[in-house]
Specification:
The structure is a homodimer.
Chain A lengths: L2 E5 L2 H13 L5 E5 L5 E3 L2 E3 L1 H11 L16 H8 L10 H15 L4 H11 L5 E4 L6 E6 L2 E4 H7 L6 E7 L10 H7 L2 E4 L4 H10 L3 H6 L5 E4 L2 E2 L2 E2 L4 H7 L6 H8 L5 E5 L6 H6 L3 E5 L6 H17 L7
Parallel strand pairs in A: 1-2, 1-9, 2-5, 9-10, 10-13, 13-14
Antiparallel strand pairs in A: 3-4, 6-7, 6-8, 11-12
Helix pairs in contact in A: 1-2, 1-13, 4-5
Amino acid sequence: MGIAALAGGVGASKLLFGLARAMPPGELTIVVNTGDDIEMHGLTICPDLDIVTYTLAGVVNPATGWGIDGDTFAARDYLGRYGRETWFNLGDRDLATHIHRTDMLHRGKTLSECAESIRRALGVKAKILPMSDEPVRTQIETENGLLPFQHYLVKHRAAPRVTKIHFHGAESAEPAPGVLEAIAAADGIVICPSNPLISIRPILAVTGIRDAIAARRADVVAISPIVGGASLKGPSDKMMAELGLEVSALGVARMYRDIVGRIIIDGADAALQTSIEELGVAGSVTGTVMRTGEDKVRLAAYTLTQFKKKASSAPA
Amino acid sequence: MGIAALAGGVGASKLLFGLARAMPPGELTIVVNTGDDIEMHGLTICPDLDIVTYTLAGVVNPATGWGIDGDTFAARDYLGRYGRETWFNLGDRDLATHIHRTDMLHRGKTLSECAESIRRALGVKAKILPMSDEPVRTQIETENGLLPFQHYLVKHRAAPRVTKIHFHGAESAEPAPGVLEAIAAADGIVICPSNPLISIRPILAVTGIRDAIAARRADVVAISPIVGGASLKGPSDKMMAELGLEVSALGVARMYRDIVGRIIIDGADAALQTSIEELGVAGSVTGTVMRTGEDKVRLAAYTLTQFKKKASSAPA
């Protein structure tokens, strides 16, 4: 059973950890958001690609969900001596990834080739694709002005009120090789429980991806990242509220209704199922909070069973 | 008293440590060999500039004479996971220097500007100039073929027999801003006890530097890096022998006779003084082996006293 998954960073990687265990990982293709990418100190840093790769490689820092377990920060501290910004936490081992990738890019390799090199070196069997080989940069329009995404998220800790979100470069970016093919060929497509606004939307904004997903709508299952009216991780809830969206699994279903046949919601949100199905989106209720490895594998396995049901349970 | 010094790496930095204490360091200008520079993983690495800067900043690893004290190697080990060469020891803190410099270069800054930024950030008062802002790369012709310098020195541990030495790019390289001015204005010029063949010659090979030094010959004092027929550090002796040069302070004096008014030799080589003076180079005899900080300051202070004597003690 071939599965394609759309993924951001920490939220997605929990489910992906489970998927890579609940199914043959070689049949899993992950399309990863690169709108969060940032150039820093001349290095190209791809936080979501790295989080997904490190997680599936089993080297991720389990305490944070990003970075490499046991990493040190000697280079970052010394970069500070040179007057450089140190708010973005670059570990020493992690830096090797950025150096390797940046050198490959300078030598004319594509971001897909970098991602492939890194996941193979770290022994990851699932296929990991950037959404595009061309740069797309998420920019957050806030009450304090336009902020590059990592400045908004890390430097300003997502504090400024969001008024609009831009995916700079998305309209002219082509999907990376294999992305549309994986979407077209997959038995099922998973939209991971990532921030819909800044993890999934940039992927959909790349030319042709939204249409490709919409064409497979009956085979697309999303997992709501909002549980009980709050995001489990990150500022999804705050951002949704600031943009006037309902902060609930129903709000998520509204955002996804054109591209998703089914949404998996947490038991805490079971009361929303009727409203969700009224949108024409099938609802499945299960525990979606992933604290342990077992939780991740269980939710992944549950997700895989939802494809067989297709959208048959949805109202006409 | 303004002093200009020509310097390689570890050998030179011992004397420079002393000079920066035996005189007001702000009146010291160091012209550093960049023939040893290497591009690795897309980073521009300048071993001699860094050794000199780290030494004067007091952060050098005292056990090796290069790298930063207490540095770790997490990034290097991870670069190995990506299939990259790890024979060149890049410490994590050290890597910050290379990242900072490479980013500056990519943004259009010169190598001089990088060196200035790094030495100021690390609190070094002496002026540190690369010999040129343009790339010069020392290449060692050996029985095993042509080797870039660091490949010869570090990867092959200086084992292959040397047949010729090239300074690729030197003939078209201009001295960095301030180099000729420092040589012209200095009260005295020191040629540090560096490898004459691969630390000092590349500096002299840059357009105009040899002539500028020769024009100041009476004010140029060299310290022989060969003591008792052997180099104190590195492969100077082996390389000199392979190139058919006499491996002695006299052999060094022969190489420097056109540009040096006086050479300081070790007490162990006192018997060579007459032969050296027959070359028209004044000889001064003192202890030149620098084991302790006191040794370094003492030899530096002694060196400074030799300028007042000028070449007056040399035969006509």
